[in-house]
Amino acid sequence: MNKDLDLPERSKAPVNLAEDTILDEATVSRLLELGISRRGFLSFCTGMASLMVLPQAMIPKLAAAATAPTKPSVVYMSFQECTGCLESLVNSFAFRGGTTIDNLILNMISLDYQETLMAAAGYQAEDLLKTVTSKPGYVLVVDGSIPAKWDSGYFVSGGRSGVARFRDAAKNAGLIIAVGTCASFGGLPKADPNPTGAVSISELMASLGIRKPLINVPGCPPIPEVITGVILYYLASGMPSLDSLYRPTMFYEKTVHDECYREESFEDGPFALTFDDANARKGGCLFKLGCKGPATHNACSTIKWNQGTSFPMMSGHGCIGCAEPDFWDRINLNGKKGFYVQLAHGGDDD
Amino acid sequence: MATPNVIIDPVTRIEGHLRIQAYAIPDGKGGGTIKDPGLSASTMVRGVEQILKGRDPRDAWAFTQRICGVCTVVHGLTSVRAVENAIGIKVSKNADYIRNMMIGAQYVHDHVMHFYHLHALDWVDVVSALKAIPANTASLSAKNNPNYKPNNGKLPDAIYFQNVLDRLNGLVNRGQLGLFANGYWGHSAYKLSPEENLLLVSHYLEALGWAREVVKLHTIFGGKDPHPNLVVGGMPCTLSSNTGPVSEDKGGTSLNTAGLAIIKKSVDTMKTFVDQVYLPDVVLVATKYKEWADYGATEGNFLCFGEFPDPALVKKEFVDGAIDYPAGYVFPPGVIWANNLNGLFPFDESKVTENVAHAWYSGSDAGAHPSVGSTVLNYTGPAPDSASYMLDESKRYSWIKSPRYNGQPMEVGPLAHILMMHARNTLDTDKQVRTGVAQYWTGALKLGFDQLNSTLGRIFCRMLETKIIADQMANWYQRYEANKAGAYWNPNTFTRLTQPKSWPKSVGFGFTEAPRGALGHWVKINPTTYMIDNYQCIVASQWNAGPRDAKGIEGPYEHALVGHVLADVKKPLEVLRTIHSFDPCIGCAVHIVDSEGQPLVQVEVNHSYRSLS
Ligand code: SF4
Ligand code: SF4
For binding Mg(2+), which residues are annotated in this chain's numbering (chain B) (predicted)? Predict the structure, then answer.
């Protein structure tokens, strides 16, 4: 990992939110135009605050950003990926009735390039990419790893290599967000023996000498609210605090094990030993079935998945560690790889 | 062939990275006609199968699942079935019910999103929608979608559509069209009225909200979506001993009272949206674009591996809770040849070959059975980053191999499924196909049955199969509900995996009919290390999107472009319509395996047994 990348200062300590946060009249009326009540907005902020340590002073800024006449441009580019990251992001958007808070997030940005969803194709898409990346300051979201060798032919789009496409798009970006474990750490393409010479975005930036702020949002895929939460935070308040792997600490400081409700039985059991035994039904700890929760930094057990519906351990399968670097090749107990092999240590072994 | 003058790269609104080239004979007015087959090329590769070598077979599903995040369940499940087949494990009733529901949910979710979010903008002009009169749109909605009440439980009225218009105008006024920028708006091939356009744009937006609700079924059973968890031997989720919410004190699992209610609600929500919105919208679009039943035909060879073992046909229950089905699949396995749409022939796995003559792999040009294919990445295409980058159909030009059945290219996917069911005509669901075709296609639309082999036919068949599956979901849910306290997982699985002597054979195969068509995985497990020796996938979009074979016979995408008349070769909307009608999933189509050329041993395909494996 290249330590030369611009790392921001840690953000201030959190302040508790209050219902009486001041929002100016103009902002409130613009929120209403978007179909969002003041109350609904504040309760959303309170919810987000508990997830991502949102300072109270930020709320008016957030509201201003949400209702700004011109939306910040987001350019989303895909490389060696599976579209799972985008699919996850799409799950965080809702339009029905026009009053959901996610709608606000969509209204806060202008998604100017995204190949899976955009109307334009071919020439018109390439043309659009040139236009939107010519105005400096946009947020560049990237999913997928990139083959390090530009002329390998392992990634070509519009006749251009992944390396060239990324380099050109990064040039005027104000911030780069690597979404998913593939973009953050190399992910599946980089798994042993890395047949295509795939590298992560931070590695490619280092080798190309691109010095830009970078945020890694790992997960295979990441939790949608984490992706949108990071974008939201950046727009309202600048760079969030990051750890040494460029992960925002507000979402990745703790392991999924820290907040797992099965932790009750982690020390002394009862452990689930098969997937449907009595202990599995009781919600016993899945450690002996290979759960990688104690070594995995992510927010699955707090935010949960698909609007708080469930998360892997709640549905009976151990964590496979999908937000960690090289999780596909993790060495566990007795030197073995595998999602059903117990961790070598009981706790955070990073 | 003359230098291609129709180039689409990147093809957007698909999964993965695809390039299309074709030559249209110019008409002197900027348009032209495509007389020869086009060229379809995948330009991204990751090497998933090579990565699988030497891994624990229990883990393979998680790797193959990441072949595609859109058809996330089917690749995982096909892998699980392949490993279960290799080690000779039958799974419990509940596992099969849940798997059916998960694949079914995948179909309904994918097909609806394909229509609205990936395909609709080929037919719907967003800029024209800005001219719609809201009150007229409300009357149109009341007529077209009389039961759909997204407006706080009421029919959408003029104010409702004015709101949608305001939001669109907001994008226009601030000059930030976002995802709608640079479309082919105003193209002469757009035929809908402003009100029809506005109605469909409004459903486009609403379908996003709907989609994130229905995936909750995957979340309850699999813990997350995309990429829910699966397990060799059954399903990892199990009924909670605590009916209330999970907690540190009370424990429990996602399958509690609330979780079961979410599944039921997902199932209901799927059906309502399909009946009230998707079905009538497809019929509306088809009515306005009937001429598209004359474009986009493939050679007329169709293939289906079979899917959705019908629980109504359960024959026998084994001691360990596993069940046996006779060969009763909602989508029958089979083959249809040369547009003989009533002749359903049996599928024989040994007739499948893969050809790399025009793909970037080293190896023999002769077609080989997947079990003996030897393929190593070998890029020989043009160097990227040059203005003269162009692919040449006389050389190698794609990361997709060309699968063939009996030496012929085959179309797979919804059109194939519907034709198979129509030809079989025994199960209730087959009759449902006949009724649907008679009511809408040959009835209201007055189109010929054989015209289903077309761009419009593919769209229609995708909708019809979605309707059939959405109806079946309730049936599978009921059966699961009645048996929910039973087994979810076969405890012999992991012991069996560590005792290779008890394996019936070391090679397994798993088949699934994915939303985009026939999908098969082959796994060979090493009898001494218990790890994967070889892994091979033959994937739906590979059949459809593959390049020419050694004989120069083009793949279905390439063939389907012949005859297209373009109004403007610089805005090849007509080409996109046909390519999108296949629902390309290119991440899926590209895969490699690094085999030593060892035969995987002859694999027997026995469909009456397959659901257990
Ligand atoms: S991180 Fe996972 S979900 Fe995202 S592109 Fe990579 S494989 Fe797909
Ligand atoms: S080991 Fe896994 S199941 Fe057990 S408490 Fe930790 S995260 Fe939860």
Answer: 49, 591
Q: Is the CB of A180 inside a 6 Å radius of any atom of ligand 1?
A: yes
With a 6 Å cutoff on the Cβ, whether A294 touches ligand 2 is yes
Residue B70 and residue A221: Cβ atoms within 8 Å? Answer: no
Nearest of B433, B463, B523, B544 to residue B60 by alpha carbon? B523
Task: Tell me how long chain B is.
Answer: 613
CATH fold for domain A71-252: Rossmann fold (3.40.50)
Ligand nearest to the CA of residue A316, numbered in listed order: 2
In single-letter form, the type of residue at position A195 comes to P
Pairing of strands A73-78, A110-114: parallel
**Residue of chain A whose alpha carbon sits nearest to that of B380:** A153
Q: Which of A259, A263, A292 most suits a substitution to test ligand 2, by most atoms within 8 Å of the C-beta?
A: A263
B525 touches chain A (CB under 8 A): no
pLDDT(A11) > 70:
no
Query: Does any domain span residue B246?
Result: yes
Q: Look at chain B and report how many structural domains it folds into.
A: 1
Can you spell out the DSSP letters for B76-111? HHHHHHHHHHHHT---BHHHHHHHHHHHHHHHHHHH
Angle B110-B114-B120 (CA atoms, 0-180°, nearest 5)?
A: 160
The CA radius of gyration of chain B, in Å to the nearest whole number, is: 24
Q: Which residues of B touch A315 (CB under 8 A)?
A: 219-223, 228-229, 236-237, 253-255
In ligand 1, which atom is closest to the CA atom of A88?
3
Measure the CA–CA gap between A197 and A149, rounded to whole angstroms. Answer: 7
Look up the ipTM and state it: 0.92
Neighbouring residues of B480: CB distance < 8 A, sequence distance ≥ 6: B94, B97, B98, B101
Q: Where are the domains of chain A?
A: 71-252, 254-350
DSSP string, B344-391: -BPP-GGGEEEE-TTBSEES-SS-B-GGG---EE---S--SSSTT---
Active-site position among B585, B610, B611, B613: B585
Q: What is the domain-level CATH number for residue B178?
A: 1.10.645.10
- Give the pLDDT confidence of B129-150 residue by residue, as tens digits: 999 999 999 999 999 999 999 9
- Tell me, using a 6 A CB cutoff, whether residue A293 lines ligand 1: no
Structure tokens at B590: 């590209």
B304 is in an annotated binding site: no
Q: A254-350 is classed in which CATH architecture? A: Irregular (4.10)
Q: Which of B9, B77, B1, B14 is nearest to B43 (CA)?
A: B9
In tens, the pLDDT along A89-118 reads 887 654 333 334 455 555 678 889 999 999
If we measure between CA atoms, which residue out of B86, B139, B137 comes closest to residue B496?
B86
